[in-house]
Amino acid sequence: MSQKEDLQIAANRIERQIKSPSVTLILFLASVGALIYLGYLIKPEFRGDPLPYTLALTAEIFIIFQGLMAFWTILSGRFNPRGYEYHHAQDRLFAGQSGGKSALKTITPETAKIARRIPMELHGKPVTIDIFIPVYGEPLDDIRQTAIAARDAYGLHKTFILDDGKSDDVQELAKTLKVGYIRRPTNQHAKAGNINFALSQTNGSFFLILDADFVAEPNILYETLPFFEDPELAFVQTPQYYSNQTNFVSSGASFMQHVFYSLIQAGKNKFNASFCVGTNVVFRRRAIEDLGGVYEKSKSEDIWTSLFLHEKGWKSIYIPTLLAVGKTPENLMAYSKQQLRWATGSFEVFLRKNPLFIKKLSVDQRLQYLTTSSYYFVGFSVLLLLLLPPLQIFFNLSPISTDIPVWQWALMYSGFYVTQLVLAFYTMGGLKIKTLILANVSFPIYIKAFFNALFRRDQAWSATNAIGNYDSPFNYVRAQVYIFVFLFLTSLVGIAKALYTYELSISLVWNLFNTIVFGYFVYVATVEASALKKAERGPKKITIKQFASEQITPEGEAA
To answer: What pLDDT shows up at residue 29?
Structure first.
């Protein structure tokens, strides 16, 4: 099956999920389960020892809040953002043609060169489009594929490679492909500064941003530009979809974002709160000029720029149509850096410009941005829950009353958490064990991100999967290794205690489960480190593409 066919299948699945009554039922049951579980937690007769009870209650209230907000958002997004105005504009997008849709259908590989020179119009007036491809050390093959796809997109436009890596090879590539090339004198403000400099060198009334590893579909402008018939619309965001699901990290990281892109972002349309994610997004130049440029004081320029645009009254649209295919992190170093950057950006918004107190936003927008900016506090919740079994094993401290039967606790607990697993199973097309493991072991990254944001520590920006020498993965997962050792020793103590007392506690079972999860993750890091050492002994230093060939199966064996 070709990548294009895979893309279409994924797109159709997303469209079905948004409208599916099964999703509605699952969300309803999950919401009821969450409220029942919360009521169970706060009942005095169910309370255990004060310390673990407080930890459990704090963690669970946050998780339930995030869950209920996500359910509300998803259920609010069951409408098609393409109205009459959109279709009317799309039919007249290709100037001088007998209709946009019919013109698109007549395009063949032989006439594709002509198609990319067809002028486009909105409101009966010609529009100018620039496509920006920010580059900072990515593999040349990735840049080539992205630039060719951008150059060949339907509709008259200009394509520019924005080279912050100052590479002569990239410059020569741009010349060979006959696309524009922009190299700025400094690297200030990372990607945001790169885009702002490009805006100062170009004049398109709209611009599309594609990260260097996102290959666009030829109809990307045809699908997005008609929305700008609305003069108050600032940007149109499309999903991030990944083709390199080849190993533990890339597969797990890809599906971690699936529910967000397939359901949550679409739901935010209802509240005019869908936000930019940095790539696969079309902006109106005038909206960005209204801000004085893309926000530069954070490495997460995307969410900050979105927030300021909404604060100024601009609108946004998210469409779940898959119009570009990219690459997710392929190793633990790239994954850790990406998650740290994303989480730090969210915490920066929460701490420096808390959405709850932005008067120019609507109440719905405040709640949506609050949920987004506080999401990565889930790292603290996971840590608190991880401490509960050791507290019981070492100190006999229990978060719930020991008089409560295990079956009753399990029933209340599963009412919320099992329905969430069912939702993930349904939307991702199966239970993705690698995703669940990666999500659970990532909490140290989020905690580090919080303190980075709190103390304003600047995090060096690096492109996902950029070319360069690898560090050992253990330089990025030390916390997870220490946690595994602690959990393993705790499990040994728990087993000895169970043998001595002839009692098997739920805390020991839970701790053993956590030990297995972190143990498997440490094993993945060991496999990656082994691949790194093997490559270093060879004639060449390891590159992203070399490591990507090391595939890890769900069982953890090198494929």
So the answer is: 82
